[in-house]
């Protein structure tokens, strides 16, 4: 059973942000060897950011088109994109457990684990960006504003996570 702790953070960049601390990922992170992870970091980032973005957009557009053609409940475009961002983050805990049991290549394990950890951050950032676009319909709805909100949320969350990880590492010394 995966236990999720929900912590509300109230800071400058992350007003009421929801941060997920997954115990299985934390344990896997402690047992992961850093060399294969950091040697494949470019591929992991590419899979996590580009893959999750493409998956979110394709899912959101398909949900929107399915509503137009009366195949499902019709949602506005912003809500379809929010659903795409929400549903496109995957969590391959079972696959990682099978990889560990079979003793598969450490590079493959590092790729799948790294992508599964980082795609959650991308999906949360995309969701929050679409939510802010939906909540402020009269505001400047340019592409630049949406991209800026995504970057702000993504890097704000990443820096908060890095700060928590570093402080945890210092405490556990």
At a glance:
With 173 residues, the protein is mainly alpha-helical.
Task: Tell me what the structure shows.
- The chain is mainly alpha-helical and 173 residues long.
- Helices cover 71% and strands 9% of the residues.
- It has seven helices and two strands.
- It has helices spanning 23-31, 34-39, 41-68, 77-87, 93-102, 106-135, 143-171; strands at 4-10, 15-22.
- A two-stranded antiparallel sheet has the order 1-2.
- β1 and β2 form a beta hairpin.
- α4 packs antiparallel against α6 and α6 crosses α7 (143-171).
- The longest helix is centred in the C-terminal third of the chain and has 30 residues, at 106-135.
- The chain is globular, with a radius of gyration of 18 Å.
- The two termini are 29 Å apart.
What brief labels describe this structure?
about 170 residues, mainly alpha, two-stranded antiparallel ribbon, 2 strands, about 10% strand, globular
Order of helices and strands: EEHHHHHHH
What is the first-to-last residue Cα distance? Answer: 29 Å
Shape: globular
Give the strand line-up of the largest sheet.
1-2
Total of DSSP H or I helical runs spanning 4+ residues: 7
Q: Quickly give the structural class.
A: mainly alpha
Q: Mean of the pLDDT scores?
A: 77
Helix amount, in percent? Answer: over 70%
User: How large is the share of residues in beta strands?
Assistant: 5-15%
CA-atom Rg in angstroms? 18 Å
What is the element layout, followed by pairings?
Blueprint: E1 4-10, E2 15-22, H1 23-31, H2 34-39, H3 41-68, H4 77-87, H5 93-102, H6 106-135, H7 143-171
Antiparallel strand pairs: 1-2
């Amino acid at each position: 059973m995966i236990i999720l702790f929900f912590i509300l953070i109230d800071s400058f960049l992350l007003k009421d942000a929801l941060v997920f601390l997954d115990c299985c990922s934390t344990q896997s992170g402690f047992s992961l060897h850093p060399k294969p992870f950091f040697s494949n970091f470019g591929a992991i980032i590419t899979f996590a950011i580009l893959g999750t973005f493409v998956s979110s957009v394709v899912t959101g557009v398909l949900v929107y088109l399915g509503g137009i053609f009366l195949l499902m409940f019709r949602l506005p475009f912003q809500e379809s994109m929010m659903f795409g961002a929400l549903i496109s983050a995957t969590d391959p805990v079972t696959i990682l457990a099978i990889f560990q049991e079979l003793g598969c290549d450490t590079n493959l394990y590092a790729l799948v684990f790294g992508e599964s950890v980082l795609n959650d951050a991308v999906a949360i950032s995309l969701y929050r960006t679409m939510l802010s676009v939906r909540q402020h319909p009269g505001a400047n709805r340019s592409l630049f504003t949406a991209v800026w909100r995504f970057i702000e949320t993504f890097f704000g969350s990443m820096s908060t996570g890095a700060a928590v990880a570093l402080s945890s590492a210092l405490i556990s010394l």
